[in-house]
Design goal:
The complex is a heterodimer.
Chain A: H1 8-19, H2 25-37, H3 39-65, H4 67-71, H5 73-89, H6 93-96, H7 99-113, E1 141-147, E2 152-158
Antiparallel strand pairs in A: 1-2
Helix pairs in contact in A: 1-2, 1-3, 2-3
Chain B: H1 3-6, H2 11-19, H3 23-45, H4 48-65, H5 75-94, H6 123-127, H7 130-142, H8 145-156, H9 161-168, H10 172-195
Helix pairs in contact in B: 2-3, 3-4, 3-5, 3-8, 4-5, 5-9, 7-10, 8-10, 9-10
The chains are: A mainly alpha, B mainly alpha.
Chain lengths: 163, 196
C-alpha cells in the first residue's frame, strides 16, 4: 500500500532503524506520514516497537520477583570468593593426589613394553646376519657393521652424542 | 548505570582499590551493576534462579580476573563479556528449548484477558496477558544464543551497537544483522499472538 510519501518496502526497512532511534528526523517524519495512511505498516511498526518494550517488561517482572535475592548478591558473591579462595589455597585431597593413578598407569605401560632382555643395549643392532657396510644418517649417530670371517666387527661412529 | 550516571566513585578507582586489597570497593561494583547484569542474564537464560547464579558466578570470575582489566576501557563492557559467556554456557547446560514453557509462576490466578490491539507497556499489562509472555519467551528461546544476547543487550540494557560488538567480540555489522533477525522473529511472535 502507498502511504503519503513512501512505499511499504522502504517503510519496512526504516522501521527497525526507527525502533533503535537511528532514523534521521526527516526520514522519521516521512515514515510517520506513511504509517498514518497504511494500516498494515502501522501494525508492523507497532509490533516492532513493542518488541523491546515487552522484553523490558518481562525482565522487569522477573527482576521484581528476584529482588530479595538480588539484594543479597554481594553476600552471595563474597561467599563464593571466599570458597574459591580456600579451594585455591587448599586444594582437595582428590586434586592433590590425582597424579598418582596416572603415574601408576605409566609405570605399568613401561613394564609391559620395555624389552625383557637385560643384556641388550638399545644401541646395538639386533642381528649381524646382514652385512651393512655403510649406514648414513642425518642424525648424530652413524653405525658401520661388518660381519667378519670369525667374529663380527662393529664400528660405531658417534657424533655429538654420548655413548 | 555507571559512575558517570550515578555521580559516584569512578569504576577505575574502585578497581584499583579492590586490587589494593579492599573488597569493599568490589562490593560497590557489585551493587552498581547487579541489576543490569540480572536483567541481561535473565533475558538470555530465561529463568530467574539460573540468572542469579550467572550473575554471582560472573562477579566471582571478574574478581579473580580483575588484574587482567585494562584501565581506560569500560568496566561494564569487560564485565558483560564475562556475563554473556557465562549466561550462554548456563543456557547450553540447561538444554532449554523452544518447547520449554514460559515461567508462569508470577502470573496471578485472576488474570483477565488483555485489551485488544494493545501491546503491554507495563508489568501490570503483561500480567493480564499470560499468553503474550508465553509467546515472547518461546520466540526468545528459539533464537540462536548470540542473537538472543544481542537483542537483550540492545533492548533491555540499551547498549549501543559498538558496545555490543565489543562485548560479543564481533563487528558492528554482525550486531546489526543479528539484531534485525532477532527483532523480526520476536515481532512475528507478537503479531501472531495479536492476530491469533
Amino acid at each position: 500500500m502507498e502511504g503519503a510519501t513512501m512505499d511499504c518496502r522502504t517503510a519496512l526497512e526504516k522501521m527497525a532503524r526507527n525502533a533503535d532511534g537511528l532514523l534521521p528526523r526527516e526520514a522519521e517524519a516521512e515514515l510517520s506520514g506513511h504509517l498514518a495512511g497504511c494500516p498494515a505498516c502501522a501494525a508492523e511498526d507497532a509490533a516492532i516497537s513493542a518488541t523491546g518494550a515487552v522484553l523490558r517488561v518481562l525482565t522487569g517482572i522477573r527482576a521484581r520477583r528476584e529482588a530479595p535475592a538480588l539484594d543479597a548478591m554481594w553476600t552471595r558473591v563474597r561467599a563464593g570468593i571466599e570458597e574459591s579462595g580456600e579451594a585455591r589455597l587448599h586444594p582437595s585431597w582428590i586434586a592433590r593426589w590425582a597424579w598418582i593413578p596416572a603415574a601408576v598407569a605409566l609405570a605399568i605401560l613401561a613394564l609391559l613394553f620395555y624389552p625383557a632382555g637385560t643384556d641388550r643395549s638399545p644401541f646395538h643392532p639386533s642381528t649381524f646376519d646382514v652385512a651393512v657396510e655403510d649406514v648414513e644418517s642425518e642424525a648424530a649417530t652413524v653405525a658401520l657393521v661388518d660381519k667378519g670371517e670369525d667374529l663380527p666387527r662393529v664400528i660405531w661412529i658417534i657424533e655429538d652424542a654420548k655413548t | 548505570m555507571n559512575e558517570r550516571e550515578t555521580g559516584g566513585v569512578p569504576d577505575d578507582a574502585l578497581i584499583r582499590t579492590t586490587l589494593a586489597g579492599d573488597d569493599g570497593a568490589f562490593a560497590e561494583l557489585v551493587e552498581r551493576y547487579k541489576g543490569r547484569a540480572f536483567a541481561v542474564a535473565v533475558g538470555i537464560v530465561g529463568n530467574g534462579d539460573d540468572a542469579l547464579d550467572v550473575v554471582q558466578d560472573s562477579f566471582i570470575k571478574a574478581y579473580y580476573k580483575l588484574k587482567e582489566f585494562r584501565f581506560g576501557s569500560n568496566f561494564y563492557t569487560w564485565f558483560y563479556r564475562l556475563l554473556v559467556n557465562q549466561a550462554i554456557d548456563r543456557w547450553r547446560k540447561s538444554a532449554r528449548s523452544a518447547e520449554v514453557p514460559f515461567d508462569e509462576s508470577w502470573l496471578s490466578e485472576d488474570a483477565s484477558p488483555p485489551d485488544a490491539f494493545a501491546y503491554p507497556q507495563t508489568p501490570e499489562d503483561l500480567l493480564r496477558d499470560r499468553e503474550l509472555g508465553d509467546a515472547l519467551q518461546r520466540a526468545l528461546d528459539a533464537l540462536p544464543e548470540y542473537h538472543r544476547a544481542v537483542i537483550v543487550l540492545r533492548e533491555v540494557d540499551g547498549m549501543a551497537y559498538d558496545e555490543i560488538a565489543k562485548v560479543l567480540g564481533c563487528s558492528v555489522g554482525t550486531v546489526m544483522s543479528r539484531l534485525h533477525y532477532a527483532r523480526a522473529k520476536l515481532k512475528e511472535s507478537l503479531k501472531a499472538h495479536r492476530e491469533g
